Amino acid sequence: MTARQLMGLWLLATATSASWAEGEDRPVASDGGDQVIYRRIEQVRRATAGFRLDGSDRDWRQVPQLTDPRGDAGGDPGRDLVAAAVAPRQNDLWIMLRTAGKPSTDPWAFYVEVDLLADPGDDFRIELESLERGPVLRPYDKRWQAGDPTPLRRAKAIVHRVVEMRLPYADIAAALPADKAALLAGKDVRPWVRIKSWTWDSERQREVDYGPAVASFRLIETPYPLDIALPSRPRPPVDVGLPLRGSWFVLQGAMGRFSHQNLWAYDLVKLDRSGYQSSPRDGKKNTDFHSWGQPVFSPIDGRTLRVRAEAEDSPPREFGRRRTAPNYIQIAAADGFALDLVHFQKGSVTVEPFGRVSAGQQVGLVGNSGNSDSPHLHMAVWAGRFPRRTAPLALTDVRVGLNSGIGDFWARELTRWEPREGFFVEAVPAGQHAR
User: Fold this and answer.
1) What is the fold, at CATH topology level, of the domain defined by 238-427?
2) Which SS3 state, helix, strand or coil, does residue 112 take?
């Protein structure tokens, strides 16, 4: 399939959107509130219709942005990323990066990781090699190793008051492997796009700063499903509350690529403003990870069936090397299902087998026990009193968004939501939904 054909399919099947200036007190959609999001998409779509590539942020004032504190770039204001925005329009992807001072024009100063396709993780990296050559694309393989750089013939970048890039989807398709390019088209095109940015000092050969991760729905006229379709369900989902407090990211969902094949199971992690699980980014210790030690609460009333509490926590990045059982709690509910909460920190579990547990009761801390790549909470529902198969679940009374935090322009407040990878989710007290 040619890049031109892919582009035609993209125009038929895609959807495009954006995010809003952080911290503004804006309403969020309640149940049935997809129309609220569609109105916002239309608002931003119209705002981007007259975009001009001029290195100014004038056109971006009506486009959602996320910010990052100044002064964390070691005294280099030209590489100190303080704001980012993405506008996935119908034919092209626009990116804006703002720095604390006039942006650096040095070669290789700016990099952007792009999560665009219906495939988990970042799909490719955009590098601004030089203003003369323009943006180049490095695709990632299944292990997220960057491939050779490919110039994007019609892509443009300008560094002036801000860093501004326009990346035509046809160029992106031509630069990706065929299996990746195919995901740019078809009925299952993902409805949102996320970017992460960072800066580099080539003279000193070091990373300088990481900007805020920012995601946006796609910006097209025709309404499209805001949540991607799930696999066919064996039964209706079981309703449970979110067992965590604050904003959590659905890293892996049902029938996932890594450890959830053929499982209705979900992995939840904490991410920082730049979209990473740890600080430093290549965290070597469990304590480097934002999820580590976060309290876990029972989301249901029930009785514990099985409990394991004393398994050692694995070092990060060792998935597949350890086959030991993790620390976990299995809670039986009155209506015949059982809920698993898994990977607790050693010694943190506070309940005993065959004891009563109440919704909202703290039951342990997030850890990295068993065969786990990094600290996270795994949750799954099992059907039947002596369960053999996982069942789909729905989280009740939650705020669901593309960006972390209550200020997310794209957040919806829902009384029930079946989790999907790539979204942030946060519990909302029952009866306190925005209207």
Assistant:
1) Glucose Permease (Domain IIA) (2.70.70)
2) strand
Q: What share of the chain is helix, strand, coil (3-state, %, to 5)?
A: 10, 35, 55
Read off the pLDDT of residues 19-51 as tens digits, 9 standing for 90 and up. Answer: 334 333 333 444 456 888 999 999 999 999 999
Greatest alpha-carbon span in the chain: 68
CA separation for the pair 108, 360 (Å, rounded): 49
Cβ-based burial of 228 (10 A; exposed 0-12, middle 13-18, buried ≥19) = middle
d(CA 56, CA 412) in angstroms, rounded, equals 31
Domains of the chain, residue spans = 3-217, 238-427
Please provide residue 2's backbone torsions phi and psi, each rounded to the nearest 5 degrees.
Answer: -80, 165
User: Looking at residue 311, what is its pLDDT?
Assistant: 95
Confidence at 143, pLDDT banded by 50, 70, 90: confident
DSSP string, 49-90: TT---SS-SGGGGGS--EE--SS-SSS-GGG-EEEEEEEE-S
Distance CA(373)–CA(381), nearest Å, equals: 22
* Residue 133 pLDDT: 84
DSSP symbol at 287: G
- Full-prediction pTM beyond 0.85? yes
Q: Can you tell me the distance from the alpha carbon of 400 to that of 19, in angstroms, rounded to the nearest whole number?
A: 14
Residue pair 377/366 in contact by the 8 Å Cβ criterion: yes
